[in-house]
Amino acid sequence: MSHSATGQSTSQRSPHASSPPQAERSTLRGWLAVAGLALGVFSFVTTETLPIGLLPAIADGTSVSVGTAGFLVTGFASVAAVTAAPLTALTGWMDRKWLLVTLMVFYIGGNLLAAAASAYPLLLAARITVALAHGVFWSIAAAIAVRLVPERHAVRATSVVLGGISLASVAGTPLGTAIGQSTSWHVAFVCVGLLGVLVLAAALLFMPALPARGSGNLAVLLHVLRHRTLLVAIGVTALVMSGHFLAFTYVTPYLEQVTGVRSSLIGVLLLVFGVAGLVGNFAAGAVVGRALRGSLIGSSGLLAVVLAVMWAGGANTPLAVTMLVCWGVLYAALPVALQTWVLRVVPEESEAASSWYVAAFNGAIGVGSLIGGLLTDASGPRPTLLAAAGFVLAAMVLTVVCGRGGPERVSRP
């Protein structure tokens, strides 16, 4: 991988340039820290989606409607989207190790506050506390990971960290829902809070000091937007993620009403989707470093085809299930490719650039889910697949037409 992929020269990696035994220890410690970041991604994604399976119980426990309780999810994503960029810029002066420690303290405190809450306003305040940390964590996680390992392993480290997304789908959200349903939603929040303790311990034990590269002011946010290729990457992210969540938010009614899958099998199919995502995530780690643009074009183009096939042939159960597995593989490869693209475009301000990526990602969750909901209410869940295919196809076209170009450097503000 080129130097521009991480913006860090070999001479800056003094731990790895020392004697071989020390280098081996330092590399092992770096990978353990990367594993801690992956657990952090797993924890944050699990926390973000935890209320989905527990909405009726939370609504009853806090004396609000299910719709009002649902704002604990949509409001969480909205807060993370709006605050990710400014908070990441304002904390640009902090050593990244100690910023991560601070974020995990907020994460643990917010989840334990949620576990103790019996009134909706307090529970909402707890969720907002975690959402504030969520946006910053996502903005810095991949940028930290590539500083912890040798440059040639930067994409692999990114895929390991983002593997926490698929793992949360496979294990985190289902287990959290099962715990909440078998005990109470309070206990579920305690459990995800304890996950944060493990991430905090990994940061303290394994992560070296990582001096800040930012200036700690908001001007850097406008500065990085002067990079045309970054704007393209943000646009592609918004289109891809809007398309995915437009359809996936309503995949359960699609499978039940269009494909005719029994309700009892939905959980199994979503588990299969998550496992396929793990495969796609790590396959991307092996390919993206060598062919980034090709990976983006291929993954988004094939995903558009898969979604279109599901729209056209959804009544054929074997076909629909096969396409669902392909969807899981292809979608999971895209965050690895997109995050790597963002890190390469502006290596000198990778975290500020990532914060715009995070804002686009989280904003797309809300936009996609809203459009999908309107389509489902108007015409049923089937049209969401065709609309999603259109969004993803537009992302592919944008990548083909405007996605060329390597790192761009302009004068600092």
Automatic annotation (TrEMBL):
Where is the protein localized?
Answer: Cell membrane
**Which is one Pfam family of this protein?**
MFS_1
Q: Key word Cell membrane present in the record? A: yes
Is Transmembrane helix set as a keyword in this record?
yes
Transmembrane residue ranges: 28-46, 66-87, 99-122, 128-148, 160-179, 185-210, 230-251, 263-284, 296-313, 319-343, 355-373, 385-403
Q: Record's InterPro entries?
A: MFS, MFS_dom, MFS_Efflux_Transporters, MFS_trans_sf
The topology of this chain with respect to the membrane is: Multi-pass membrane protein
CDD domains assigned to the protein according to its UniProt record, in alphabetical order:
MFS_NepI_like
Q: Which UniProt keywords apply?
A: Cell membrane, Membrane, Transmembrane, Transmembrane helix
Annotated ranges, domain Major facilitator superfamily (MFS) profile: 33-407
Region Disordered: start and end of each range? 1-23
Per its UniProt record, what PANTHER family does this chain match? CHLORAMPHENICOL EFFLUX PUMP RV0191, PURINE EFFLUX PUMP PBUE
Identification of the protein by name: MFS transporter
